[in-house]
Amino acid sequence: MEYSWFYLWLGAALLGLGLLLLHVWWRERRFPGTALTLSAGLLLVVSAAQALLIFGMGISGRWEVASAPFNALSITAAGLATVVWIALATRRGRESLRRGAARPQRIQELEVLAAISRLSSQAGSVEEIGGNILKAAAPAVGADAAVLLLLDSEQRMLTAQAASGIPEALWRTFEIHVSDNFNRAFMAKGKSLVVTDVGNERRLKMQLAKALGARSALVAPIRYEGTPVGTLTFYAVTAPRKFDNVAVAVAELIANEAADVLERARLQEEVIDQRERAARVLEHIGDGIFLVDGGGVIRLWNPAIAAVTGLPAAETLGRRASDVLPGWAAIEPLVPVASAPAYAAAHAETLPLDLGDRELWISVSAVQFPDGTVYALRDLTEERGIEKLKSEFVATVSHELRTPLAAVYGAAMTLRRQDVELDDDHRNRLLAVIAGESDRLAKIVAQVLTASQLDSGSFAFAVEHCEPGSLALQVVEAARVHAPSDVVITIAPGNDLPAVACDPDNLRQVLTNLVDNAVKFSPGGGEVSVSLERHEGRVLFSVRDEGLGIPPREQERIFEKFFRLDPNLTRGVGGTGLGLYICRELVRRMGGRIWVASSEGEGSTFFFELPAVAPEEHAVAEPAQASEAHAS
Ligand code: ADP
């Protein structure tokens, strides 16, 4: 039985040792590096146990109580036991032990904070940076999952921005309304909250925690300059632990540090967003925009200017403006350069820009700023062309009006003369001049009126079923009355033609314009032939002459408003330049199309086609209601 004390002490020592090892293993698993501190403590305890063991052996009679080794051992044991007692029993001792144990954890905290501040210097989205913060922070807090939620601008909704250890499908669309008082106060205060039992939590909404199957959670509010911006929420899913005070302190520290970094990332995102938006605006703006830096090199070239000049950005960026635009050097000094956009827009200058193969009329202004000069230009070539045509039109119409007016005036004055005896024949010829010239005047005025009604959309149509053959015959017969004797007008009205859907007055006007032109532009005489034929559900009209003809490059343009091949009347053939424009608009609105085939000096053939009315429709249908047909 003398060994019973010995076994008792041995057992107690081994148990203590085992428990300590378990504790060390557990601390080591949570906070790597803790083992170092604890091994020191372990050593102390083992030696104390050893001393007590020997003491036990002593009193069990193996050594004499008064023997020197026994004394030495007893004193050592007592000393060590006191140290252990002081360490465990006093506040300061416990504190110093805890500090020792916490040191590795602090090192880890510092590592997390260092990682976070490293992130602050990196560019990245809130999601990327937030994800990295969470990845570093979760183990330091002792969590196995974490989510970053940020408040919207109205501070009503928290939306998930990044997560760690949570499946994307769970967090990506996660959001919480936080307009209730508790949440508001909690976020404003900035103190963390530990939820020990997720299932029974009533104050905070724990949907994500529940979906994750977390047992406990730690919510650390993030505040930036005193204003709540969001939360860092940590979850213990597989870890059975509750978040202790150390974890709370670490989480708050991280939330504090993360606020700056996240705010910077958010601002960066905003700047990138703004820059992208500005770039998109430039892409879609109708005005041509280009930026020339201080060295005269083009740094930006938007699609509108590429379209206007026909030069893609790839050919202009990095080159000097005067190298890519031949006429730029000549107009650059004339472009008004302002320091504020509002002033520039109000003082744009209209200038001709030579592109080498063609000339553009541009309205251009510029604004200078530290990055260089930004030029904004608008292509006015077409407007300028119309302006030119308009002024030519005024000159032509004045001339066109003056000639018949002079004839009418002359004839009337002759008829009024008392001193001259006029025979009947003479008198009739003068009256015929007055009637004919008045008719010409009326036609010019009617053309101007029709063109203006077509432009304003107030032109009235009454679409009916017309017999094209008889209508064309009437036009030809009327034209024969006035045609010069050297022009022969023939007609081939076609066989078995279907009716066409059109306004008969308008069809008559189109045909009259074309036949009149054919006669007018055949100054040397010749044949003018009108023919009609059926053509795949349409009726094709053609008016052919053997006159002056039209050069190929002008064959499209003659249908433009005011366009005349010979605006200065060098060939002596007058006109307003409105006839073919009216023809094109009328045919288009009746659902057809018009075109020309011509060779200069040999004559021209004008074609137009109109939709035929289907036979059964023709048989039963009432005339269509007045309506405006649109271009095909
Ligand atoms: P206008 O005949 O009053 O000048 P139009 O619009 O009818 O105006 O015609 C525009 C231009 O097209 C004419 O000035 C003329 O140069 C050309 N043109 C029209 N018809 C013919 C034709 N049959 N032969 C040659 N040129 C023509």
Furnish the topology, listing elements before pairings:
Elements: H1 4-30, H2 34-59, H3 68-89, H4 91-120, H5 126-141, E1 145-151, E2 157-164, H6 168-171, E3 175-177, H7 181-189, E4 193-195, H8 207-212, E5 216-224, E6 227-236, H9 245-284, E7 288-292, E8 298-301, H10 303-309, H11 313-316, H12 321-324, H13 328-331, E9 337-338, H14 341-346, E10 349-354, E11 359-369, E12 372-379, H15 381-416, H16 424-456, E13 464-466, H17 468-482, E14 487-492, E15 500-502, H18 504-520, E16 526-535, E17 538-544, H19 579-589, E18 593-599, E19 603-611, H20 615-620
Parallel strand pairs: 9-11, 14-16
Antiparallel strand pairs: 1-2, 1-6, 2-3, 4-5, 5-6, 7-8, 7-12, 10-11, 11-12, 13-15, 16-17, 17-19, 18-19
Helix pairs in contact: 1-2, 2-3, 2-4, 3-4, 4-5, 4-9, 5-9, 15-16, 16-19, 17-18, 18-19
The structure holds adenosine-5'-diphosphate.
Your description of this structure?
With about 625 residues, this protein is an alpha+beta fold. The chain is about 50% helix and about 20% strand. The protein has 20 helices and 19 strands. The strands form 4 sheets. A 6-stranded antiparallel beta sheet has the order 3-2-1-6-5-4. Strands 7, 8, 9, 10, 11 and 12 form a 6-stranded mixed beta sheet that branches. A 5-stranded mixed beta sheet has the order 14-16-17-19-18, covered by helices on one side. It is rod-shaped. It starts with a helix and ends in a 12-residue tail after the last helix. The protein binds adenosine-5'-diphosphate. Adenosine-5'-diphosphate (ADP) binds near residues 521, 547, 565 and 604.
